[in-house]
Amino acid sequence: MAEQVVEPLSPEQGLFELTLMNGETKGYDFDSMVVDAINSGLPPEVVTRLKELWEKTKVIAGEVVAVGKIIVQQILEFIKSNPKLSIGIAVGAAIAVLISGIPILGPLLAPVAAVVSIIYFGGVGALMEKGDYSGSLSTAVVELATKFFELLKSIFNAVMEYWSEK
User: Fold this and answer.
1) 157 is in which domain, residue-wise?
2) Of 67, 3, 73, residue with least CA distance to 37
3) How many domains does the chain have?
4) Beta strands 58-60 and 63-65, pairing class
5) Residue 2 within a domain
6) What is the pLDDT of residues 76-128, one digit of tens each?
7) Does 1 reside within a domain?
């Protein structure tokens, strides 16, 4: 599988992409996102925690941009294009739920267990997606995060550059 490199966008292209992404969020409500996410294999425990991010907005050039919705939509698209990743995340979430059921210590360990197990098994899913099990798990997680955030970073950097020029 060839690596896809995201070329830096011009400020105008970044603003255009952000405007398109913002337009795609219109009429897309949280309940519909939850259904899409669960159908994509994400565990409900993970999906419901996206509510706070979903509601974040930012005013850019007098226009309200649904930054949270854009990020959540991009996460879902990324998960859909990397299905083995969602399997790893689901396994990690299941382990976190099991740990939270341990009497007395479970509620204390659950937050840490959730983060660690989801990241770990998400990395395992990333290695499975690559088809190469010889690499390091931490490298796979870093590559995965880099791959996901490259496009968003390019868009937001271009928009920031556009507004700093004006």
Assistant:
1) 11-165
2) 73
3) 1
4) antiparallel
5) no
6) 887 777 777 667 777 777 777 788 777 777 787 777 777 777 777 777 777 77
7) no
